[in-house]
Amino acid sequence: MRTRDTIKGLMILAAIGFVGNGLFEAFVLDVPEYGRFSMDYYVQNTLPETGSQNLVTGIYLSYRLFDSLFEAATLFVVTAGILFMGRKDEEIR
Description:
This is Multicomponent Na+:H+ antiporter subunit B. The chain crosses the membrane at residues 12-29, 68-86. It comes from Acidaminobacter hydrogenoformans DSM 2784. Keywords: Membrane, Transmembrane, Transmembrane helix. By secondary structure, the protein is mainly α. It has one domain. It has helices at residues 2-27, 39-50, 55-63, 65-86. The longest helix is centred in the N-terminal third of the chain and has 26 residues, at 2-27. The two termini are 15 Å apart. The model has no long low-confidence stretch (mean pLDDT 77).
């Protein structure tokens, strides 16, 4: 029973860390010179910085790659946590 509580605590801590990191990136980090989330920045700099002719591909594979990977990891952790906590404990006699 103690191991289960420890795992629950670690999963809650990981979820808080993921959410906190996302909020930090969304509200604190700025793109210099262009302001936060400026479309002009991406239109002007995607080709020189990424070498991608396609604007959407350049954004996803260069600017947003780690964000997408951590989103997938977050979904995996949440799904595993729900499945783990949803199991019924077997009675030991």
